[in-house]
Amino acid sequence: MASKSHFIPNFEARSVLLLAALTVGTALALHAQVSEPVVAPARIVTGAQDIDAAFDRADLNRDGKLDRTEAARFPVIEQRFDQIDSDRDQSVSREEFAAAIRT
Predict the structure, then answer these.
(1) DSSP string of the chain?
(2) Separation CA 81–CA 18 (nearest Å)
(3) First CA to last CA across the chain, in angstroms?
(4) Nearest CA among 94, 96, 99, 89 for reference residue 58
(5) What are φ and ψ of residue 93, in 5° steps?
(6) What percent of the chain has pLDDT over 90?
(7) Mean of all residue pLDDT scores within the chain
(8) Would you say 68 and 81 are in contact if contact means Cβ atoms under 8 Å apart?
(9) Neighbours of 53 (CB within 10 A)
(10) pTM for this model (two decimals)
(11) Whole-number Å distance between alpha carbons of 100 and 84
């Protein structure tokens, strides 16, 4: 009996290489889609005009103070709301807001 050799013809070897390349390419594309998006750094608010403008944007009802809902527009303020509200009136005044931003 003649022994059969285990030979992969050229077209099968190319098919295996093509499949491997497609698999690697798909994995890289999937990784690129689920990676963290690149976000531009936030503009740093430092000047008095910047602080006033930020406060005015958050003060939706224009009553001169931020309640918890309005403060939610600034996660840093929202997270420290009770600390920033130094007079414990359940709102953050423009002065309390400015002091919190500067620290």
Answers:
(1) -PPPP----HHHHHHHHHHHHHHHHHHHHHHHHHSPPP-PPPPPP-SHHHHHHHHHHH-TT-SSEE-HHHHTTSHHHHHTHHHH-TT-SSSEEHHHHHHHHH-
(2) 58
(3) 89
(4) 94
(5) -80, 170
(6) 39
(7) 77
(8) yes
(9) 12
(10) 0.54
(11) 6
Q: How many CA atoms lie within 13 A of 66 on its CB side?
A: 29
- Confirm if 92 and 100 have CB atoms less than 8 A apart: yes
Amino acid (one-letter) located at 16: V
Q: Is the CB of residue 78 less than 8 Å from the CB of residue 71?
A: yes
- Determine the Cα–Cα distance for residues 100 and 53; give it in Å rounded to an integer: 15
What mean pLDDT is predicted for residues 29-39? 53
Structure tokens at 43: 């503009």
Residue 3 pLDDT grade (very low, low, confident, very high; cuts 50, 70, 90) = low
* Residue entry with tokens 């224009």: 62
CA–CA–CA angle 90, 96, 97 (5° rounding):
100
Q: What was the pLDDT predicted at 36? A: 47
Provide φ and ψ at 94, rounded to 5°: -60, -40
